[in-house]
Batch of 4 targets.
Target 1
Amino acid sequence: MPTHENDYPQLLSLAVHEFRTPAGVVSGYLRMLQRDTEHPLTSRQSKMVDEAEKSCARLVALVGELSEISNLDARTARLAQQSIDVFALAQELAGSVQEAGDNDVHLEFRGESAGALMTGDITRLRAAFSAIFRAILREKASPCTVAAECRFKQTGDGRSAVVVVADKESVQAAYDSQPGPFDEKRGGLGLALPIARRVIEAHGGRLWSPANVPDRDGRGMAVIAFPLSE
């Protein structure tokens, strides 16, 4: 039986269209209820409509994320062509992303701060890095410091820019480890992680979790690498 792999992007695109239309209608009617001056809502009704509108807005956002995945998988997404320093971008986001809440988990930047130049879509890459950093911080249940360390790596294929995200004591072990799959199935982040991996791969890069770091959960670490033209 044929697998029809090429049908997947079309099916996802159709699903996006079918979800977007009713979600937009519901959102519109909820806004009309909120603004109705002829028959104003009670405070209890207003609160329920507000909560329904927030949930509907979340559904609309998820549909938008599905659309992004569909376009990236079909390779129809238009990536901007801008000059980007991957290390400068990582440093910027390491200073602004904090998802630790009351767990006293901090993210610090270490290593090379500039020189990893490439061409790409800085808006999408900024969102991808932010999602990965947030996902790692959310995995930490106790006070610790997570490092986002930038390094250059020279291989037979050329030079790469590598960003290692791990507990500061485990950065070297994560860097030396064998690559394993990065777990994208994490609650609370919507589809940000599946999008992040696709965006990185669309720029010729790779995202993985270290597979064999002793006494460490690979979900709490990530390695991002991009090839650089010399």
Target 2
Amino acid sequence: MPRSKSPPRVKGPYTERGGARFRIRICDATGHRDVYFSTLNEAQAGIRQATREVLQSGGKRHLGNVIDEHMQDKVQRGLCAAQNADIQKARLRDWLSDALEEDIGKITSKRAAAYYEQLVNTPTRKTKQPPTAATHRFYLNLAQTLFRWAVRKGYIRESPFAEIQPVGRPNRGKKQLRFEEAERFITAGLRLFDEKDDAMALAAVTALLLGCRASEVLFLHVRDLDCGGTRLWIAARDSEYTGKTGNAARNPEVPDVLRPRLIQRTVGQRPEDYLFGVGSTGKPRSRQVLHRAVRRVCIVAGVPIVCPHSLRGLWATAGVRSGALSHAVAAALGHGSFKVTAKHYVQPGTLDGTRTERLVEMLALKTPKPDRDPASLHAEQLLSSLPAATLAKLIELASRASVPSL
């Protein structure tokens, strides 16, 4: 006779790591899964909630519960910041809203393809236009990651989203200000702060001059302004704010034009206070507030309207154009690799020009004399016409040739 299946149940809590965390095990007809908590009270509450869900579902795994579990697992394993996990969870729940109460195994490849097609063609509430290629590709990647994880957990045999191919070609990078426009932007932002005490205008200028993410600026504390205002500590991970990646931690030097104004923001403030203030809820101001501030400064400066993240891209472009080493620019932006910087932040053409100048200099083709050698000019023109990949290879070969043998 076939063995009868065990009734669904929840086990635990089990103490792990010397009491540093607690584990519960949820068992049903298809297997078991472990969920971890920081405290015993949280684990006991998790047991009660899991018991209710198991009894209500009869052992089924509702998609909504799987999404929650997946995001919790990503945070616990250090793969995603809690703030980003909440955003991703909301996106998936909104997109797949009509299937949240269904068993995850009921979602077929045909339904998954229909979900993606609907996403691609449905106008968004914000823009009244279908989402961009980058947006719907991001949603698709979230779904594919979720269902691959569900396969590894044994919840389903195969992912219904595995064979879906993304459509459209995403635009890379955002519209950036020109250097003269950026100068007017900085001047206007500082004037708004000096004359109208516009703290968010100063935050916008800070984002531009230091290449910060919006969240990095908004979550700055008074104590993060260090060494007499000459250094600014940008955190990667703490109990309140988690940077986008572990590479986000850095302490850039504060420009002279910015230093006295940031120090002014600290007057009468406690070390734990937020440098650019809080909203009505007592929490740091939202990204939308900074977005409106950037727009306000753009209008006053008479320059094209851009978003806060575009200011970060302009900083990267300026760093590369100035001849800064690629790894230094990436590190200053909090990126683990210059590939991310070059792909999403640096203006097209900047890298090619910089590579050409560097190669010409390394091959001793540049001359400080006013009258240029025709051979040197011809060499520069030839190098400028080469593809970026070829230039990069030549730089590598020239670097090796320039190192003296031991």
Target 3
Amino acid sequence: MKVPDLYCGKRLFVGEGRPIALGIGEAEIRGSGFVEGPLQIGDAGAFSSVEATVMIGQETNSDNPLNADRSLYVKGDSKFEGDGQTENAVYITGPTTDVVYIDGDVFITGDVDCGNKGRLAARFAVADALGKTFDMTHPTKGEGWRLAYACVEGPEIGVYFRGRLKNKTEIELPYYWKDLVHEDSISVQLQPIGSHQDIIIKRWDSEKIYLQSRGGIPIDCFYHVNAERKDVNPLHVEYVGNSWKDYPDPNHLNKDPDDESRNLLDPQYRGPRNTVTR
């Protein structure tokens, strides 16, 4: 058995090596230590074989009144740098509900796979089944009251444009609609303001809606224009499957949005149009 090598400024070295990171000569770090082989701390029976370079087991000596509840407590920033030797760079298990508890923000640059279980997944499942909703403190009644709204839903991938037209005969649609929507999917609803004006829709295209009133009466009305998007494949409203993962077009739901091969207009998954108004 080799006796630990104690020397120079109260440093501890166990083994033959001399770590460069701890300094050599005048650059030696006082109070540093080096162990060449595996190091185990805590309960002697915590490990049956060498699991890591440093193994820390919970101290179970009942005669020690100072036993701690944790096997490791770190104050200060920490860094883990994996080397690919195992499937998981950091692997954490525990018997409690909150195995990992983080008090603060979390920033992740890679993918996150939560296994589709737990509290977040439960809320997502409810949202998928009952509609896309948001919930907030009531803007008028304040604390103690909530306001819940849901997104407009329908059997198409649609967009809308609404507003008021006054003393004009043309509704100018957003300039980008000519590249965003199918012209033959456009529908228009009009509501006269103040009096009956017998407004009719003479014609339309992807840029304007052309109106006409009885006897040239000045037009004053609300309008609501709907259309189906053409920059993506039509929505498959009904399909065979047991979950959203069975949706016929993997480009929409199952493929990473950053995947360069993702094609929302992939012809092999294109179904019939959802809305045609001509």
Target 4
Amino acid sequence: MLELPEVEVLRRDLEKEIVGKRIKDVTVETPSVVRPFHRNRPEFVKALAGRKVEAARRRGTVIFVDLDEGYTWIIDAGDEGSLHRETANEAPGPGTHLMVTFTIGGAIHLSEPGSQATAHTGVVPTGEALEAAGVSPDALDPLDDNPTWMEFGRFLADADGPLKLVLTDPTRIAGLGPIYSDEILWEAGLRHDRVTSKLSTQEIRRLYRAMQEVIVLAMKAAGSSLDDSEAEAAIDDEGTAAQHLRVFGRDGLPCSRCRKPILRTRIKKGIYTYHCDQCMI
């Protein structure tokens, strides 16, 4: 699953790679990826082809590529999608949803493993982009909004809910999911079921610092996602957690802080957390 750190790396790569370029050709291999925004593939192609890219920004896990004439290209890579650069003549590989080439050379492909597409893309007026993408304008983006620890503390007090559920609620925090919410909580030494409004000042500062440190570390681990069509996954094909993760996917393994076994606990239907009962309080 792509979360905020990986998507921010993609955005930065896109900013360097395509801003200032004009889109030449657009090929949609999977019709369903444009249907949330367009009636059919030709409508999407007409809306995107010929446009000049002016900026690449992000909110949560959705990338917004601002185009000329007041339009924005929305790219939601879904659960496992990736964007990667190719030559302009490169044929689509397995799982390729979309191919976009540019007038001065090069191409960007949107791909996703598996048979079920979760990625979505479309072109809408810039003023309507957030709403069209289903992104809450009131949700806190830890990178874009860059709150102080005191502002973060007030946010937590207002949220007044279990830490894990608040961190993964897209209407409250944009971009964090099951992976990095667990990593942040482990780094801060706080249990998933602690109530946000009941945290001490010291605990708020620990959580704030952990959120910053975990996101930065994850971005470093992601590298340059456009250069690698198989961006580093949190869990590999053999079920092993990525090296930069300390708790997620490591149930049964010793905690690297206290050596007690990592636990996997069901919070509610479809939502689990990885944690250590010994050193998280």
